[in-house]
Design goal:
By secondary structure, the protein is α/β, with parallel strands linked by helices. The protein has three helices and five strands, in the order βαβββαβα. The chain has a single domain, classed as Lysozyme-like (3-Layer(aba) Sandwich). The structure holds zinc ion (ZN). Zinc ion binds next to loops.
Amino acid sequence: MAKLERIDLIVVHHSASPLTTTAAEIREWHLAKGWDDIGYHAVCEADGKIVEGRDLQDFLMGAQAQGVNQRSAGLCIVGDLRKPSSSWTGAQIVSSREWIRAGLLFLGMTPDRVKGHRDAGTTRTECPGMSTPALRQLLL
Ligand SMILES: [Zn+2]
């Protein structure tokens, strides 16, 4: 699997699916597309559990934000922010915040290096259903 060139960006996604979605299901969707593995580096499930995807320690490139895959780490927080009934849980916000803060610290990056999918890369998307400033307010 291809390696990251560097990491200077953390890209945040929502799964655009119900809160009951698991990381294992998302992996199945991505395998069904013919990908080698789940596209994200981490998935935060509804109970706040962070499930590892592509191995960041091994510097594996994700398939999550076209245009910046070579240089970003991708976190998918399960849920669908377009629907109030599927918005992120408190537990997800707490553990995603921890994951992102630890990543920034480890990589020596400033909070402006966290972006929502729609503000990173070349894909036209609403993901994660929230502006990057609002996302930073929530998760940093
Ligand atoms: Zn996305």
